[in-house]
Write a structure and sequence with these properties.
This protein has 605 residues and is an alpha/beta fold. The protein is built from 23 helices and 16 strands.
Length: 605
């Protein structure tokens, strides 16, 4: 007998508690149903997992029960997966204010989770909630069979909270991603049912098998194996509320060939950069294009130029793809400073539509760079490298760190001087923190210098002091950090720097330049228009630096109109930096008092 499952359910007059969910990928009952059906074929079976083994639905408000089909062996009912991305704390990196002014909610989407969704059986149902955009509703928890969460270390507090919520709704929980992988023993993960570590390409099939076998818990690891990315599918960009994000994210490679002591990239993803094929990445861009995305895309590679040969192959195809479509995407990425030594690579990047690149400069102090194993930065003259990349037409953003071992006093001021000299507009200054399992972490652990006293010291949050005993007084580092941050983002200094930088950037001979048209195209939403009005109000009217704002704006329009959109983008970012400047002062100062109070324990730690 051929019976659509829905009809079968209705005819059998079984308890039907929910109705059909219009938001989901395919229809399905809202709650677990007690049902045993035996039919030959089920043309409208919503989603079925055909493992041939008896398993049960994993959660829901009802107890579990079996569904079987005589012709297929045992069958699992619909596997409904709720992908949840926990909230970030408000930090320097969250760019809240700037993102809001651009008319969005969050900077970047959770690429890891949409990759996970693409790796799971595609006849399962998925919903994704990024808690940075909105909360998970009780209905969504009740809908889900399995909650899958991914988090970085800075999200661990909200991760723990989301796990509790899932448990309250009797929902099984699988957690993976960088935080779980680097610290599987963390107490925030105690209640997790399935701890799925390492890269999902290897460990997700293990989870699927375990679910198929009815396992109710487990830990899955790749045992040091790294997957080949050529098998990685196109992430499920369709699951995202794309309007909420300022940028979309794609990834071409994982891993980095260098060996910086503080870096956990090489711990998590290895030192041999693995890449996708050019066709794979272009398919991802194609997908985003078809979904209607235009504008910024971040290639979130750890070091985009880690495998130069493969990157050049990609760029050959990417430049063609972009030019055939009149450059729908403006690309940003992260690269090591040796990019400046490869003219062909820079030209190819510019031709492919890269207009921003993030460099880990860290510090101009060569002894600190050598001490941290960042030798590549000592081989390339840093100022020259910034000028060379800027001269090609790519806006340089850079990361700086204070607190290295052996650092001489005045490091903060030397960083500020370097930034002012190079005119680098967006300079991310942070205090060194030892991330779990890095070479730095192991060394400090052996030297008994890690501070494990209080959650006040959370790795990854910008306003936290070092999570280890530094080689010079903690307080000196804190004071230099506050002072450097203050100077860098003082409104007049910042305006001077970004104007100076725009002049340099505008000198680039590149064929591809961002333009004012790009900026206007961005104003297609009321929220973005409101953001621009706020920007002009804050910087052009209410702030003391208003005359400088107008002077440099007019000069940029007259002298370098081709970089006006980049100039305005940098102005928008300063709204975030300025807000954060006072947060830094307040929070770091309070931590200095904390560290003073705990000097003795710190010394014993
Ligand atoms: C883009 C990015 C950001 C973006 C945020 C993007 C976002 N919405 O998530 C920004 C720029 C805001 C950011 C900020 C920070 N970041 Co960040 N970031 C990255 C980066 C470069 C790419 C992330 C990404 O999309 N990867 C691509 C996807 C496909 O990889 P994935 O998420 O790892 O997912 C794979 C696996 O982990 C696994 N997986 C993931 N989740 C799950 C879940 C399950 C159940 C399973 C089975 C598998 C699984 O499968 C996926 C496919 O293999 C990574 C480095 C990296 N290579 O991942 C760092 C990284 C995640 N960031 C990191 C850190 C520390 C930070 C910061 C604290 C700053 C810093 N570097 O010091 C800030 C904090 C943010 C804040 N607001 O406070 C660390 C995390 C370390 C840790 N142990 O948690 C990383 C690893 C790198 C690093 N050392 O800087 N970051
Ligand atoms: S260059 Fe960057 S990604 Fe590579 S090891 Fe150093 S810090 Fe990590």
């Amino acid at each position: 007998m051929q019976v659509p499952i829905r009809t079968a359910v209705e005819q059998l007059n079984l308890a039907w508690t929910g109705g059909w969910d219009s938001n989901s990928q395919s229809n399905g009952p809202d709650k677990a149903i007690r049902i045993t059906i035996t039919v030959d074929t089920v043309p409208e079976m919503p989603v079925a997992m055909r493992t041939g083994k008896e398993t049960h639905r994993l959660c829901g408000t009802e107890p579990t029960e079996m569904t079987t089909l005589s012709s297929m062996g045992a069958l699992q009912p619909t596997m409904r997966v709720l992908l949840v991305y926990p909230r970030f704390p408000k930090t320097f990196w969250s760019f809240d204010r700037a993102v809001e002014l651009m008319g969005h909610r969050v900077l970047l989407p959770p690429l890891g989770l949409i990759t996970v969704a693409a790796l799971l059986p595609q006849d399962w149902e998925f919903k994704l909630v990024d808690c940075n955009v909105r909360e998970v509703s009780p209905e969504e928890w009740a809908w889900a069979d399995l909650a899958i969460l991914s988090a970085m270390i800075v999200q661990k507090k909200d991760l723990a909270h989301q796990i509790i919520l899932a448990k309250q709704h009797n929902c099984r929980v699988a957690v993976g991603g960088p935080f779980a992988t680097s610290t599987p023993e963390a107490e925030e993960l105690n209640a997790v049912d399935y701890l799925v570590l390492d890269e999902g390409e290897i460990t997700l099939p293990m989870l699927v098998d375990a679910l198929g076998e009815g396992a109710t818990s487990g830990t899955f690891t790749a045992d040091g194996e790294k997957p080949d990315l050529i098998d990685s599918p196109v992430p499920r960009f369709d699951l995202l509320n794309r309007n909420a994000y300022a940028m979309m994210a794609v990834q071409f490679s994982r891993g980095c060939p260098f060996e910086c002591e503080f870096c956990d990239i090489i711990v998590l993803y290895g030192r041999k950069p693995r890449t996708k094929t050019p066709q794979q990445l272009i398919k991802e861009l194609e997908t985003l294009y078809e979904l209607g995305w235009r504008g910024d895309i971040f290639l979130v590679d750890d070091n985009f130029i880690g495998n130069k040969r493969n990157v050049k192959l990609l760029l050959g195809e990417l430049s063609l793809w972009q030019s055939q479509r009149s450059y729908p995407f403006s690309l940003t990425t992260e690269a090591s400073i040796d990019l400046a030594n490869d003219e062909e690579l820079m030209n190819q990047m510019v031709d492919s539509g890269f207009n921003r690149v993030f460099l880990g400069i860290e510090t101009p102090d060569t002894t600190s760079l050598s001490g941290a194993g960042k030798h590549q930065n000592t081989r390339t003259p840093l100022l020259e490298a910034v000028d060379t990349i800027t001269g090609k037409g790519m806006l340089v953003m850079a990361g700086f760190i204070i607190g290295f071992d052996g650092e001489r006093s005045g490091a903060g001021q030397r960083i500020v001087d370097f930034i002012n000299q190079s005119n680098i507009p967006v300079a991310m200054l942070g205090i060194l923190q030892a991330l779990p399992k890095t070479a730095l972490w192991h060394r400090l652990d052996a030297e008994k210098r890690l501070i494990k006293l209080d959650t006040n010291f959370e790795a990854g949050v910008q306003t936290n002091l070092l999570n280890f005993l530094p080689s010079r007084p903690m307080e000196d580092i804190a004071v230099e950090f506050i002072d450097a941050f203050d100077q860098l983002y003082e409104p007049s200094n910042y305006l001077k720097r970004i104007y100076g930088y725009s002049i340099m950037l505008g000198n680039a001979k590149s064929k591809r330049r961002a333009s004012f048209k790009g900026f206007l195209a961005h104003l297609n939403r009321p929220a973005a228009v409101a953001g621009v009005i706020t920007l002009f109000w804050n910087q052009g009217i209410s702030r003391n630096s208003r005359w400088l704002f107008w002077e440099y704006l007019v000069k940029t329009i007259v002298e370098r109109p081709q970089v006006l959109d980049q100039y305005l983008w940098m102005c928008v970012l300063n709204e975030h930096f300025l807000e954060y400047r006072s947060v830094v002062r307040e929070e770091v100062t309070s931590q200095v008092s904390w560290s003073r109070m705990h000097t003795k324990e710190l010394a014993r730690a």
